Amino acid sequence: MSHIIAPSILAADFANLQRDIELVNRSEADWFHIDVMDGVFVPNISFGMPVISAIKKHASKTMDVHLMIVDPDRYIADFKKVGADILTVHYEACNHLHRTVQAIKQEGMKAGVSLNPHTPVAVLADIIQDLDLVLIMSVNPGFGGQSFIENTYKKISELRQMIEKSGSRALIEIDGGVNDKNAEKLVATGANALVAGSFVFRSKDPEQTIHDLKHLKY
Ligand code: DX5
Ligand code: ZN
């Protein structure tokens, strides 16, 4: 299977959201990456349910929702209702991660767990079998347009080993600072999915940029 490209809607033009969603629909992207920030878990507020519903109305691809919020359990059913296909919570925001993951699956969504840059991969050893996706943050969550943290490669290798050893089917997704300089190495190291915000939407031709990321034309 070739790697998945997930453009981050956080970098889209919110005044022309439908236009940017249709651009992603037409492109070779696989998923819509949708960042929800609460101003508590991270120092920024993005958008909530009404905007996600509006995205869903036009989006023809998988809705990959990344929650950067405290106490995500409160909203699991609501995210299903507004159209999430994959729901990713932060390891650092969950006291009872196993319960949270089961609740996401019970709602009929794929369950993901995200790790901040300082959180070692090893904390997932006893839950990796239950996960559909692990999202490794390659910047500190909260903002688009930050620089990629090089330690990410080491985390991908460790996680890839853990996944293989355990027989887990979890995908490895990388989020933050993904661009033409690191995409190929990320995939070669073991990433299955690449999120890209600014690199796609700030480029001259976002559809072409998505194509290049998909085919690693660098
Ligand atoms: C950051 C978000 C990312 C962000 C990535 O907290 O989780 O998904 O949109 O943006 P870029 O690709 O610009 O780093
Ligand atoms: Zn994200």
Give an overview of the whole structure.
With 218 residues, the chain is an alpha/beta fold. It has a single domain, classed as Alpha-Beta Barrel (TIM Barrel), CATH 3.20.20. Helices cover 33% and strands 20% of the residues. The protein has helices at residues 17-26, 49-58, 76-81, 97-106, 152-166, 183-189, 198-201, 206-215, and strands at 4-7, 31-37, 62-68, 86-90, 110-115, 133-137, 171-175, 193-196. Strands 1-8-7-6-5-4-3-2 form an eight-stranded parallel β-sheet. D-xylitol-5-phosphate is lined by residues 8, 10-11, 33, 35, 66, 139, 141-146, 175-178, 195-199.
Blueprint of the fold:
Elements: E1 4-7, H1 17-26, E2 31-37, H2 49-58, E3 62-68, H3 76-81, E4 86-90, H4 97-106, E5 110-115, E6 133-137, H5 152-166, E7 171-175, H6 183-189, E8 193-196, H7 198-201, H8 206-215
Parallel strand pairs: 1-8, 2-3, 3-4, 4-5, 5-6, 6-7, 7-8
The protein binds D-xylitol-5-phosphate and zinc ion.
D-xylitol-5-phosphate binds at residues 8, 10-11, 33, 35, 66, 139, 141-146, 175-178, 195-199.
